[in-house]
């Protein structure tokens, strides 16, 4: 049975429903670690429908929830729409582009000076979200739970005169050595309310599931896969640059970091750098540099797989969970591995094409050559 997708449009600040429409050509993306997107088309066969669309869909102040068979699969903010028509007799249409609710934080500046001394990093993240929502007109209903800690304490100071975007502050805080992951997840709770919730994970976001991991096979429900190999951003040595000194034009520099044993094992020296122009403390700069070097050195090749949703019962709730992937072909010689799902892209069925989902994976545990069913 073909899945039905519907777009529910609401006021961003109050979540009051404005209207609902069937949506075609829909593609939804959600990730851990970056903003997801949505695109789709609303048909306007008559002036009444066209007026409904223009009234309900106001870019920048409209939330859109994508339902698949009445279950919420995605939520975000409409940022652009394009109204068009042709002389060929086809219905007029509105092409919608949206981004997950975390995109809102890229449009919000920290407007007060902020200081946190020896505070748990997750508490700092929650305080930043609290400042966003405390400003006049800034509350978009993000749900924040304060019952989680990481045990890692940070000292941070942010100046409003640097005009920092809250999204960038959160990303930099999370990306330090021994940092965390964050996202805004969308779902309907047991009371039937639509929820946009700050989801924090230390050191990573994981989703517990009852029973065993989902097993996906190629050939099988997995219709294609891709292993990218890219050394253009790999590094054996690293320096990070901070703010310029008050009495000198020379910027603050991190310690010179390197990967022990890399040169001895035959790697050429590969230098990497990063800039943190508002960081004024060497200890904080070194935290960033350590995390950046670790990321540049340890970045591993992980697959992106495409799954036929008719053959595999997956939903966006798979984000953060682990799957067991088994591939038997000329490249892998019966690979078997456990991977954490960090990205989910669904494409609705169109004109006889199957409904598919692409999963972006991160290494959980790689078990090498498969010796048979486990």
Write a concise synopsis of the structure shown.
The protein has 374 residues and is mainly beta.
Determine the N-to-C terminus distance: 32 Å
Shape: globular
The whole-angstrom Rg is 23 Å
Structural category is: mainly beta
Largest β sheet strand count, sense and barrel closure = 13 strands, mixed
* Structure summary, number of beta strands: 22
Whole-number count of domains: 4
Give the class-level CATH name of the largest domain: Mainly Beta
Q: Helix-strand pattern, N to C?
A: EEEEHEEEEHEEHEEEEEEEEHEEEE
Poorly predicted spans: 365-374
Considering the protein shown, what is the CATH homologous superfamily of the largest domain? Answer: Baseplate protein-like domain - beta roll fold
- Classify the fold: give the CATH topology of the largest domain: Phage tail proteins - horseshoe like beta roll fold
Q: What percentage of residues falls in helices of 4 or more residues?
A: 10-25%
At CATH level 2, the architecture of the largest domain is Roll
What is the beta-strand fraction? Answer: 35-45%
Given the structure, what is the number of helices?
4
Organism: Streptomyces indicus
Protein name: Minor tail protein
Element layout with pairings:
Elements: E1 5-11, E2 17-22, E3 24-31, E4 37-44, H1 47-56, E5 62-68, E6 71-84, E7 92-100, E8 114-120, H2 121-134, E9 142-143, E10 153-158, H3 166-174, E11 181-188, E12 194-201, E13 214-218, E14 222-226, E15 237-244, E16 251-253, E17 257-258, E18 271-275, H4 282-298, E19 304-308, E20 322-327, E21 335-347, E22 356-369
Parallel strand pairs: 9-12, 13-20, 15-18
Antiparallel strand pairs: 1-2, 1-5, 3-4, 3-21, 4-7, 5-6, 6-7, 8-10, 11-12, 14-19, 15-16, 15-17, 19-22, 20-21, 21-22
Helix pairs in contact: 2-3
């Amino acid at each position: 049975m073909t899945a039905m997708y519907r777009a529910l449009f609401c006021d961003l600040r109050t979540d009051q429903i404005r209207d609902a429409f069937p949506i075609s050509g829909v593609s939804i993306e959600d990730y851990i670690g970056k903003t997801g997107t949505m695109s789709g088309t609303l048909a306007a066969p008559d002036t009444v429908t066209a007026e409904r669309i223009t009234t309900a869909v106001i870019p920048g102040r409209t939330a859109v929830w994508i339902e698949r068979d009445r279950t919420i699969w995605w939520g975000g903010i409409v940022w652009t729409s394009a109204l068009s028509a042709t002389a060929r007799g086809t219905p007029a249409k509105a092409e919608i582009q949206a981004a997950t609710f975390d995109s809102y934080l890229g449009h919000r500046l920290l407007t007060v000076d902020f200081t946190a001394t020896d505070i748990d990093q997750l508490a700092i993240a929650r305080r930043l979200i609290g400042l966003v929502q405390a400003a006049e007109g800034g509350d978009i209903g993000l749900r924040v739970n304060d019952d989680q800690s990481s045990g890692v304490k940070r000292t941070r100071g942010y100046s409003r005169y640097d005009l920092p975007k809250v999204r960038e502050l959160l990303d930099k805080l999370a990306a330090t050595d021994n940092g965390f992951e964050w996202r805004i997840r969308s779902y309907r709770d047991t009371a039937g309310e639509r929820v946009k919730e700050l989801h924090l994970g230390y050191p990573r976001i994981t989703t517990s599931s009852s029973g065993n991991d989902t097993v996906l096979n190629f050939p099988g429900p997995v219709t294609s896969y891709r292993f990218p190999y890219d050394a253009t951003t790999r590094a054996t040595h690293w320096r990070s640059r901070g703010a310029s000194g008050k009495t000198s034009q020379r910027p603050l520099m991190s310690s010179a970091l390197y990967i022990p044993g890399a040169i001895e094992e035959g790697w050429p020296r590969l230098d990497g750098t990063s800039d943190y122009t508002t960081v004024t403390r060497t200890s904080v700069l070194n935290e960033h540099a350590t995390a950046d070097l670790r990321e540049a050195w340890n970045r591993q090749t992980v697959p992106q797989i495409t799954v036929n949703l008719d053959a595999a019962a997956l939903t966006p709730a798979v984000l953060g969970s682990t799957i067991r992937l088994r591939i038997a072909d000329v490249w892998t010689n019966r690979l078997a591995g456990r991977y954490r799902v960090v990205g989910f892209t669904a494409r609705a069925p169109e004109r006889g094409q199957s409904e598919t989902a692409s999963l972006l994976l991160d290494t959980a545990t790689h078990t090498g050559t498969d010796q048979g069913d486990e």
